[in-house]
Structure formats: structure tokens, C-alpha cells
Write a structure and sequence with these properties.
single chain, alpha/beta, 17 helices, 5 strands, 8% strand, globular, nuclease activity, metal-binding, hydrolase, nuclease, hydrolase activity
């Protein structure tokens, strides 16, 4: 007969107490108690969210019947174990002594919490609203030109651990093993949608096609669109920069002055699309487990990406001004050392049009998408020229 969680925890606790020389339950929970009774900053540092958000998430998981207290480990400590591991990129063995439980107990509750968060993850991903995002409405560089833009889409590679026989497809163009993750981001640094688990060698347009056709798909509201970079093709619902024209900030350089409508369009497009890099940056800062290849089954590694994005959204709602978000809210990204720089956001491919076949688009649709971009660029350029002439008249 299978043992209950209480029996497993009790047996594991007795074992680890004998190994470490501890005998009281109060000593076992001392670390968690100290953190939760301490200042908010301590909770944020250890469990990656402040106390208000932490306790509220515990209540949600308990109310939904996804986690329960045991005689030995309360829900707060179960969540703390999970958050400490993903928030500090630690393996089970490294947290055993801190939490004073056996590796089996740590691993079991880690997986229980991951499953619980995955169960409610869709609750934390909300589709775009119909209103014009404040980041666009309140900035004359972007309004009214991008008034129908709801966010930005991009892909990012996270390191992955797979068996020798599976490594081929997961080896990306830089030679590293990774999963290619597609995300749609809002301008307030939240995720509208995340698709994880694709092999590192998978073409970006193929992943976008999958996101648009699967059962739980990426939905673009009628008349709206996402911004995408040069890895993608300009198609209905996704506005890409003009090819063969400066796009990234390094190409603009200091004192950049656009020479025509495509250059101006690409410059402002890149400023808006930059929200994907800042959102990914905040995600990795909070959950550094994503920046290395964790030794879990592939299915668990994929779930970790989705769960981290869901928790990112939850914390953004509950504590929008915590220090991690503040680091990345400004347009200029902070200089944070990336342990895996080759696996950063992919560089644009030279000829994205070669991937157009991954998403069937008729000639009429392609022409309409091109007209949408041209109309935005033309209006933007005409206003820019008029404003420059007005400044010259004053001078």
C-alpha cells in the first residue's frame, strides 16, 4: 500500500534529522519562518515575491485544492521550497540542509507545486485589451501611428538538458542545446501568451505558425497586430521592420537621423519592440533556473518556462513596483551579466521571407499587411518632416 504524504514526510524528516542532528520541528521551519516574519525585501530576495503576493498565492493554491497542509510541511513551506529552487538556480541537494528535509521530500514537493502552478497558469495569461496601451497613447513618437498595436512577439532560447539521442534537433545555430520559446508581451511587461518546448533548431516562423494554429493558440484581435523583429515576416497581425534598413540600436548609433520613412519606422518600431527584451530580462532575473540547463526531464523543463512566465504575470499584478521590475522598466536595459550570452534573443536571420511557407498567406493578405506598414511609415515620416521644418523656421 502506498504511503501518504504525511507518512513520507515523517519518514524523510526523521532520516534527515538523524543525518543533521536536528530533532525539533521548529528548527526545520526556522528558515521559512524567519523569512516570512522578516521584511518584505527578505521575502523577495529568497522567495522572489513579497509577503503579500506569497501569502495570497498560498491561499489560491489551497482554495483551489491544489496544495494542502501536511502534518509536517505546510503549504507556505512547500511553496517556499519551489520558489527558492527556481529563484536561486539550486539543485535539490543544495537546499536539503537549509530546509532540513530529505532529497526525496524536497523533490516531491517541488514537483507538486510545479503541477499546481501549471494547473492555474492559464488564469495568469490574459489576452490584449481593446484600449490603446498607455505606452503608445502617451508618447507622440508612437501615437497615433501604432494605435492598433497590442504588444510585441519574440523568441528566446533557454538552455535545455536532453538525452544524447535527442540532442540533434535541440542544438541551435550557436551549437548550444536549447528550447526555442515564443512569447507575446504587453507593453507593461507581461506575457499575453507563451509557447515553450520547441527544439532549438526550429525556425521561428514555424513556431509562430504553430502558435496560431494549435488548440490553445495565440489570438490576435481583429484589426490589431503585434510587432515582430526581422526574424519574422510581415504578415497580417504581425508587423515586421523593413528589411535591409537599420533596425537595432547598434545600427542607429548616437545622433541617428533617419533619411527616409523606412528608417524612421524601423527606429520607432525597435523602441517599442524592445519591451520583449526587458520582459525576458526581468523573467530571467527573477528565475535564474531558466538560464542554465536544469537536470529534469524535458517535460519538466518546458513546464518550468510556462510556470515562470505565469508567476511573472502574477507578481506583476500583485507587486508591480518591486525592484526586479524597476530594473527593467526603463527603456535602457541595465547591464546585467548573462551567464549564457549566445542563447540570448536570436539575431535576425538574413532572409526571413524563406520561412513564409510556414504560414500560408495569400497574395491579397500579404499586400494588405504591406500596406498597413507603409501607411504607418508614411504618416510618421510626413509628421516628422513637418516638425523638423517647424523647428528650422523657429531657429
Amino acid at each position: 500500500m502506498e504511503s501518504s504524504d504525511d507518512e513520507k514526510d515523517c519518514n524523510a524528516e526523521s532520516s534527515i534529522q538523524m543525518e543533521l542532528g536536528h530533532s525539533s520541528e521548529s528548527k526545520q521551519t526556522k528558515f521559512v519562518d524567519d523569512v516570512l516574519k522578516g521584511p518584505n525585501d527578505s521575502c523577495l530576495e529568497n522567495f522572489r515575491m513579497d509577503k503579500h503576493a506569497f501569502y495570497k498565492l498560498c491561499d489560491v493554491l489551497q482554495t483551489r485544492g491544489l496544495l494542502r497542509h501536511t502534518n509536517r510541511i505546510k503549504i507556505e513551506e512547500q511553496l517556499a521550497i519551489f520558489m527558492f529552487i527556481v529563484g536561486h538556480n539550486l539543485r535539490t541537494r543544495a537546499v536539503q540542509e537549509l530546509f532540513r528535509y530529505s532529497g526525496e521530500t524536497i523533490s516531491r514537493h517541488f514537483n507538486n507545486v510545479l503541477s499546481a502552478i501549471m494547473t492555474i497558469s492559464l488564469d495568469f495569461f490574459q489576452p490584449p485589451k481593446s484600449d490603446v496601451p498607455p505606452a503608445i497613447r502617451e508618447d507622440p513618437q508612437f501615437y497615433p501611428y501604432f494605435l492598433n498595436c497590442v504588444g510585441a512577439v519574440d523568441g528566446i532560447h533557454f538552455p535545455v538538458t536532453v538525452g544524447v539521442d535527442e540532442q540533434g534537433p535541440f542544438r541551435n545555430k550557436n551549437g548550444f542545446l536549447s528550447q526555442n520559446v515564443l512569447a507575446a508581451c504587453s507593453f507593461d511587461m507581461k506575457f499575453h501568451y507563451v509557447l515553450a518546448g520547441w527544439e532549438g533548431s526550429a525556425p521561428d516562423m514555424r513556431i509562430l505558425s504553430s502558435a496560431l494554429t494549435r488548440r490553445k493558440k495565440l489570438v490576435v484581435p481583429d484589426g490589431k497586430y503585434y510587432l515582430v523583429d526581422a526574424k519574422y515576416v510581415n504578415i497580417p497581425g504581425f508587423v515586421a521592420p523593413y528589411p535591409g534598413t537599420p533596425y537595432c540600436k547598434l545600427e542607429f548609433g548616437g545622433g541617428f537621423h533617419p533619411q527616409d520613412a523606412p528608417e524612421l519606422f524601423n527606429q520607432r518600431h525597435s523602441f517599442l519592440h524592445n519591451v520583449t527584451g526587458r520582459t525576458f530580462g526581468a523573467l530571467k532575473e527573477r528565475f535564474p533556473i531558466l538560464t542554465s540547463a536544469p537536470p529534469y526531464p524535458l517535460a519538466t523543463q518546458v513546464k518550468l518556462v510556462v510556470a515562470a512566465c505565469a508567476l511573472h504575470n502574477y507578481i506583476r499584478d500583485e507587486s508591480p513596483n518591486d525592484w526586479i521590475f524597476k530594473m527593467y522598466e526603463q527603456e535602457a536595459m541595465p547591464q546585467v551579466e548573462d551567464p549564457m550570452p549566445p542563447l540570448e534573443i536570436e539575431q535576425p536571420i538574413v532572409n526571413a521571407e524563406t520561412q513564409l511557407s510556414d504560414i500560408p498567406v495569400g497574395a491579397e493578405e500579404a499586400e494588405h499587411a504591406s500596406q498597413v506598414r507603409d501607411t504607418i511609415a508614411t504618416e510618421m515620416w510626413n509628421d516628422y518632416i513637418r516638425d523638423c521644418a517647424a523647428i528650422d523656421d523657429v531657429l
